[in-house]
Amino acid sequence: MQYDLGYLRIFSAFYQTQTKAQTKTALHCETIVIKAMKKAWQGAALGTASTERAFVVIKDKEGEISVDTAPFTNQNKQVTWKPKVPAGGKIIAIFHTHPNSGGENPSTPENSIQGKEASDTKTADALGIPIYVISSRGLTMYDPATKQNTKLRNNTEWQKSCKDG
């Protein structure tokens, strides 16, 4: 199954899984997620590149989370890859960068450079999972259940532990 819905194109097959952690705090505050956000941001040339970097967070049947990072695709303002989900696991969130020239919020069908049929929010709605935008202006999450954006961290504070402010 392929979702071709904007900045992210998600496939139901899988790719590479990294280390695991238990989820007990806000997802964006998990050490494994902060580490993956920093890596994605560095891969996006600190927002100066027109390419994006992405990863998904996977929860296994024991409740542990892992991060599956997309390989570099060199696509303009979108990422396409085939994430791998272990048996009994599921993707619970999508994280991706936006360039400094782009917005801090997930794209919508009205403002997507990919057109009305493709956007971050449409991807999140289709998959029923939140989508996060990592940018120089902060970390923003779109929740498909509420259809609302929430700014979680300002500027590049998302690179620090949530306990550090």
Number of discrete domains = 1
Helix proportion of residues, in percent? 10-25%
Assembly annotation: single chain
Distance between the termini: 40 Å
By CATH, the superfamily comes out as Cytidine Deaminase, domain 2
User: How many E strands?
Assistant: 10
Order of helices and strands: EEEHEEEEHEEE
Low-confidence stretches: 1-23
Instruction: Give the spatial strand order of the biggest sheet.
Output: 3-5-4-7-8-9-10
Enter the CATH topology name: Cytidine Deaminase, domain 2
Rg on CA atoms, Å: 14 Å
Which word captures the global form? globular
Report the β-strand fraction as a percent range. Answer: 25-35%
Identify the CATH architecture. Answer: 3-Layer(aba) Sandwich
Largest sheet descriptor: 7 strands, mixed
DSSP helical segment count: 2
Question: At the first level of CATH, what is the class?
Answer: Alpha Beta
Helix/strand-derived class?
A: alpha+beta
Q: Give the rounded overall mean pLDDT.
A: 80
